[in-house]
Amino acid sequence: MNDLARQLRELHGQPALVLPNAWDAGSARAIEAAGAAAIATTSTGVAWAFGVDDAGELTQSAALTMIRAVCAAVSVPVTVDVEAGYGDVAGTVAAVLEAGAVGINLEDSTERVLDEPDVHAARIKAARAVDAGLVINARTDTYLFGDRTGTIERAKLYADAGADVLFVPGVVDLPTIAGLVRDSPLPLNVMAGPGAPSVAELAEVGVARISVGPAITSAAYALATAAAKELLTSGTYGGMTVGV
Q1: Residue extents of the structural domains in the chain
Q2: Which of 133, 141, 60 is nearest to 103 (CA)?
Q3: What H or E segment, with its residue span, contains residue 175?
Q4: How far is it, in rounded angstroms, from Cα 199 to Cα 17?
Q5: What crossing angle do the helices spanning 174-183 and 151-161 adopt, rounded to 10°?
Q6: Strand pairing partners for 105?
Q7: Fold of 3-213
Q8: For 111, how many CA atoms within 13 A lie in the half-sphere containing its CB?
Q9: pTM of whole model > 0.90?
Q10: Who has the most CB within 10 Å: 2, 24, 29, 136?
Q11: At residue 209, what are phi and psi to the nearest 5 degrees?
Q12: Which pLDDT value is given to residue 242?
């Protein structure tokens, strides 16, 4: 296990690891400069950066191009979103490691359809077989697709397959999150953002990792759109003053 992988692994716990997700090399550098202890990418944000939609339109080649750029731009550990592995989990993981990343998100849905648990467990096993030190964040989309009762059963299966963290996007109420923390065999990652409990509240109930998915990407593009509209309509520059 290399030093960056060890650092990333040790960051999971208390206080919770907070990851403001990056979508390209420039955003990764900005997030590192803001004080992030690690960088996580968002596949949705990366897809938008390439001008395509998420959930199937981002290719393995494009994702790896961005991963290489992000890893080259920062000095902190990088964990990357590889969706469901792009049909070649082992090959994707080998390329991710070669690029310099030390962790992955691997999700159990493809093209917005929830996969069978054993299908995803096989992906996790394939990723683990490539590298023993890789930090595998096993994402389950049960809360996104309304199959919540199977979440902990999936967590147990994914833990047995070699996952290190359980990522459950789509849940933001504290009692439910506290229950997942209690019942999951793996440390819990939740996706926060506007309307979610604060970092302090999530950490208090035992969440080990807090990410925000494409929320910062969306805010950045909204700012760019508003500034461009202002320039093209009123001819003024108020929207460009942020960060100046």
Answers
A1: 3-213, 215-244
A2: 133
A3: helix 174-183
A4: 10
A5: 40
A6: 81, 137
A7: TIM Barrel (3.20.20)
A8: 5
A9: yes
A10: 136
A11: -150, 130
A12: 73
- Tell the residue number behind the tokens 């595998």, with chain if given: 136
d(CA 1, CA 144): 33
pLDDT for residue 243: 63
Chain centroid, CA 233 distance in Å: 37
> What six digits make up the tokens of 217?
């990407």
Lowest mean pLDDT across 11-15, 65-69, 216-220? 11-15
Query: Is residue 234 within 8 Å of residue 226, measured between CB atoms?
Result: no
CA nearest to 18, candidates 196, 180, 178: 196
**CA 140, CA 84: separation in Å to the nearest integer?**
11
Q: Give, as one character, the DSSP assignment of residue 234.
A: T
46 closest CA partner among 75, 70, 18, 74: 70
Q: 130 vs 112, which has greater pLDDT?
A: 130
Pick from 44, 101, 97, 33: nearest CA to 71: 101
| Residue 35, helix vs strand vs coil | coil
Token output for 241 = 């003053």
Instruction: Report the alpha-carbon distance of residue 100 to residue 29 in Å, rounded.
Output: 15
Cβ atoms of 229 and 202 closer than 8 Å: no
Q: What is the C-alpha to C-alpha distance for residues 117 and 4, in angstroms, rounded to an integer? A: 30
**CA quadruple 79, 167, 1, 98: dihedral sign:** negative
Q: Which amino acid is at 72?
A: A
Mean pLDDT of the chain: 96
Rounded CA-CA distance 210/165 in Å is 11
